[in-house]
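User: hey, got a sec? need Glycosyl transferase folded
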Amino acid sequence: MKILYGVQGTGNGHITRARAMAKCFHEQGVSVDYMFSGREPSQYFDMDIFGPYCTFRGLSFVTEDGKVQVFKSARKLNLLSFIKDVRALNVDSYDLIINDFEPVSAWAGKLSGKQVINISHQAAFYDPLVPMLSVASLHRRFISLFAPSDLALGVHWLPFGGRILPPFVEVNCDNKQSHSFKLVYLPFENLDEIISLLTLFSDEDFIVYHPDMTEKKHIENCHINPLNRVNFIHDLQNCNGVICNAGFELSSEALTLGKKLLVKPLQGQFEQLSNAKVLVDMQRATIMHSLNEFTLDNWLTEQGVEKVNFPSDPAPLINWLLAGNYQEPEQLCEQLWLRV
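Assistant: Yep! Here you go:
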């Protein structure tokens, strides 16, 4: 079976999920071609696991100061360039296209009549039981148009419906320690505003990762770092709390390690607003809707949480994909939830 794996590159969570899949494909000796879209090629990092990969511009949104900028996103949208990308991606030789909410490969597969399976967190929102805090029907329509597929398997923290998988989380719980510092990853927020908030709490230590950084820097009680997957996971394992946007993969890693969470959902992004609500309903996180010192102060005094044992090995999913019988995904999902 020849497989193309298309990955949305605007957020690191999609790439994190693809890394776990790529590792398992490699261990089973399965050759997979990977393609990414949604960010500048120079902004990808720690990509060795994927071997030679290709990138396209794709479709993405513009964010400023923790908010999705609708009008700037619309102005950035270049449909002619997107159509050229879809036509340039030749999928004729592939038997299967796996898609993590990536629009170029999804549309190329649809137009070529290829089997496209969407395995993503966004696909979970097809299920009406998954909370959505705004116009649900419009957002579900958006998901289906953005990255169309023949079969959609969602990924979420709870088995809301029959076609939702648990996340595969690779962090090593055996190396987990408990130091006093807090890990901060708020890539959509203004870095100066983040530091202004954190330095108000001089008795606390914060390790901050931000895409605006190119080298390490130390400001009062904040150690600020450029993005680096290996160093980030090390600090995630050793911190005693995580402050982040309400993305899916980092929250999944924090839940697996039993780290308390303070999440600031990206305003205007329905997925993160929904994630924040689910985390609060699970009693696994506190929400702050702005960089608020009072919310942070209260959260710093909260106790830790019990960890959630999500599976780390996606082999059952990959074996199911390779078997080629996609008629009853509910049995696969049920099997994987028994491991949580």
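Quick note: The CA atoms of residues 196 and 283 lie 28 Å apart. Let me know if you need anything else on Glycosyl transferase.
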